[in-house]
Amino acid sequence: MLYIIGLGLNERGISKEGLEAVSKCKKIYLENYTVDFPYTEYQLEEIIGKKVKIANREKVEDLSLVDEAQKLNVALLVYGAPLSATTHITLINECRASGIKYKIIYAASVFDAIAETGLQLYKFGKTASMPKWQKSFEPESFMEIVKENKKIDAHSLILVDIGLEFKDALKQLKIAAKNQEIKIEKLVVCQALGTRNQKILFRSLEEVETFSGVQKPYCIILPGKLHFLEKETLEIFSGKR
Fold first, then answer.
1. Would you say 136 and 38 are in contact if contact means Cβ atoms under 8 Å apart?
2. pTM for the model
3. CA–CA separation, 103 vs 86, rounded Å?
């Protein structure tokens, strides 16, 4: 049987149901390529009481986990919610096609935690992913998504690539916004949501450029049209109250 288990947002975010499933498994893999973890694998091992094996993108995408699940109980631990990555859906479909049992165990994710900013979840548009630019490859598709969201006054959540430093993300954001003719006045920066190091900042682009030490994982929100209650809550994170 294959268990795909959400870990939530901190090392204690795994549910009781998740812990019970882990206790039944002979092999436990930790997916490590979608987020910069706010804790170590050793801290996680202390919580679940078992050793984990790191599963990189190649390990997950080659579907060998499904083959292993034919003979024994296997767990794939995923930061946040278990089905945020399309690869995990592929695993489920392969289990269905092969007649292998599977179980999804849900947990909180960044998509839940961003509600603490005061921005209403149903007013978010399509989520954008900012890749780490290379010298010969500087895609701006994430800002094109922001432009689409702005047309319907929706908020834009921008998830950043693993390993992308905050100062570099801001640089990419400024360049892409200029090229796409989007004016950024204020933005929300969310650091390590759901952990003891959580911070939410609502500032101008110029102000956040002076910040140092923003910890991973972090995300950026470009607000759309604001309801008065959203404005009121965001002001709490503006540093002016």
1. no
2. 0.93
3. 16
